[in-house]
Amino acid sequence: MMRKWTVLWPVLVGSVVLFAQGCADQGMLGLQDIIREEKNAGEAESTTEPREYEPEQPQSDSTQEQQDTREVSELYYAYHHLDGEKQKIYLEVLDALTGMKSGVPLSTLDKSVLDVVFACVMNDHPELFYTDGYQYTEYTIGGTVTGLTFSGKYSMTDAEAEQAKLMIEQRLAECFQQVPLHEDEYSTVRYLYEWLIDHTEYDRTAENNQNIRSVFLQGRSVCQGYAKAMQYMLQKAGIQCVLVTGFTNGERHGWDLVRVNGEYYYLDPTWGDASYASGGTESALDGFVPPINYDYFLVTTDEITRTHSIEKVVELPLCTAVDDNYFVREGLFFDSYDAARLALVFGSEATREAGYVTLKCGSSEAYEQMMRTLIESQAVFDFVDRQGESIAYTSNEEQRTISFWNI
Prior knowledge:
This protein is α+β, with helices and mostly antiparallel strands. It has helices at residues 41-44, 61-68, 84-98, 114-124, 158-176, 185-198, 213-218, 223-236, 274-277, 301-304, 326-329, 339-346, 349-354, 364-376; strands spanning 2-8, 34-39, 104-105, 131-141, 144-154, 201-202, 220-221, 241-248, 251-260, 263-267, 297-299, 309-311, 333-334, 356-361, 392-396, 401-405. Helix 3 (84-98) crosses helix 4 and helix 6 (185-198) runs antiparallel to helix 8.
């Protein structure tokens, strides 16, 4: 008997409420939700005997040895956090999807591992933008599984995918003309983060918004498109990055885990885009919200989990490093109220040119102290001479940041 299953890859489709971010679940299928299409082999072939699974010819010892010793780049986090058996299946699935193949024999008879392995492949490889899901076919004799084959579900033909790849690479080449690849990794990540946000608008109606085509070919996307595009660029720059999925405010969302200068951080490019905060619409805040928000740029596990609930397909590291957090690197991080340092920040050329500045506090106590002193006691006017004019500000208690405009 032959049974065929189709598994649809879950999508992340966004809806936005100002400062209550999350990608809404619209018709989303979880990994456990499958459409079953059952067909007996005897219906296609006039025989009462069950159809046996016939695998490809055994590989030569040299070919098998090559597979066993195949090196996979450290860029691919999920692969390196699977056990040996699942790594082998991962490579079989990856090769099938890369070649847009169908009916590929797998080295396992256990269909229960396919969801995890497929998710790992997709979370590692944003270049598989043409993949929508997969099918597997199970072959049995007398109730005993004798074989399992894998087929990808593709949204375009091979020729269409190749054309899209060329167009994406052309777009990426424009970006990489200015990438500071020879500086430390922080500079590269920051440049690509800013480029992505500058060239993308949050748009729930954008086509292909679950993959990188929406970003590089349309300039409009939602959270998963942002996260995969960020991952794609970072991997091109030689920086390890993996897609992370989960929930924010009860809605599905996607972001990134990145290794920068040897340490792991979380990064959410969607939440860094002002067009996401405003829901892609005009707002009274449009004149005040900076185009790029760094509250979720290279943050710790503690910081990301205040607002993001993580789905762990594989084990993820506990991120505790802060050295490459934006606010730490740019001298905008405060453990306590420090008038001398604040004077330097508000008086800096960077702040004057931007017309705004965001400060981050290292603890709830420091945040409360800064709010009391700068806002309630209006000490901000000690650093900005407005002479009777107002200064606009907003604050994020969860991330302990305070932003000032009109300065």
